[in-house]
Amino acid sequence: MGNTVIKHVLIIPAIIIFILSLQVNYVQAQDNTLYLGNRGNDVVKVQQKLSQWGYYDGTVDGIYGYRTAQAVREFQRKNGLAVDGITGTSTWSALGYAAEKKQNVSTLYWNSRGNDVVKVQQKLSQWGYYDGTVDGIYGYRTAQAVREFQGKNGLTVDGVTGSSTWSALGYSAGPQVTSTSTGYNASRSYQDKTYLLAKVISGEARGEPYLGKVAVGAVIMNRVQSAAFPDTIPGVIYQYLAFEAVSNGQYNRVPEKESYLAAQQSIAGWDPTYGCLYYWNPVKSSSQWIWSRNITMRIGEHVFGV
Predict the structure, then answer these.
(1) CB 3.0-4.6 Å disulfide test: which of 22, 129, 184, 273 passes with 145?
(2) Where in the chain is CATH 1.10.10.2520?
(3) Which tens digit of pLDDT belongs to each residue from 52-96?
(4) Please, where in the chain does CATH 1.10.101.10 lie?
(5) Strand partners of residue 108
(6) How far, in Å, CA of 85 to CA of 72, rounded?
(7) pLDDT digit string (tens) for 268-303?
(8) How far, CA to CA in Å, does 297 sit from each of 10, 159, 293?
(9) Per DSSP, what are the bridge partners of residue 21?
(10) What is the pTM assigned to this prediction?
(11) CA-CA distance, 304 to 296, in Å (whole number)?
(12) What is the CATH number of domain 2-100?
């Protein structure tokens, strides 16, 4: 009799735990926003759940393609969510996955300001890389000092202070910052490369047709792949005077949805320029050097070349 009671005492909690495990799954929220072109186990989870609920009838292959995005849009529409085909925090939750929040490491680059920039400047000054004013403004001299430091410490030389550079500066994980709202139905940090790309597209191609926005993003992605440019998205974007919208601060505006989608698709590999590394407005540009580039096409107000 005593053994029977003990067995029941042990079995009941186990059953409760099992039931709860079926109802709530946990996914990492730091980089788990999914969209067109993503691949992996998280995509499989979305496809499986949407398949079970009758929204998705394609192959569960872990590839976030057109049919998966359309299934997500249909699911969002019927569940009162923003219909964008992107699996973000709200959509994960509606699918039955509760998100575990993580803090993001602050990433510093051209035009960043504040106490974190002061920390970088102070450390680089102590070590002889930076001889400018410790003013908390991430300008040209700070970026150049960071580049020199990166070069001498075996890091990617892009002038951007990310997690690896923070660690090399003696900060184990860099100052922690909570992500801020972008206005586009999500909470993101500046570390989110898609958001960074969307900001530049918005600033550089505001008023351009959608194809022109994707083309601007594609040029940036082509530069990442080219040996003539930095090999990271932040490195290309914050290369000194590379983009007018970054230099004049226009990229600081919250990107509209279309620019965000254009960023996603250019990262996923859509390149309507077929490999172009440059673009410019022929009406506004007076640079003799840029006009020496070989023009291959025109989209909207921009010409594209190599």
Answers:
(1) 129
(2) 185-305
(3) 888 999 888 888 888 998 999 888 888 888 888 888 888 888 887
(4) 2-100, 115-168
(5) 161
(6) 5
(7) 888 999 999 999 999 888 788 889 999 999 999 999
(8) 71, 32, 12
(9) none
(10) 0.46
(11) 6
(12) 1.10.101.10
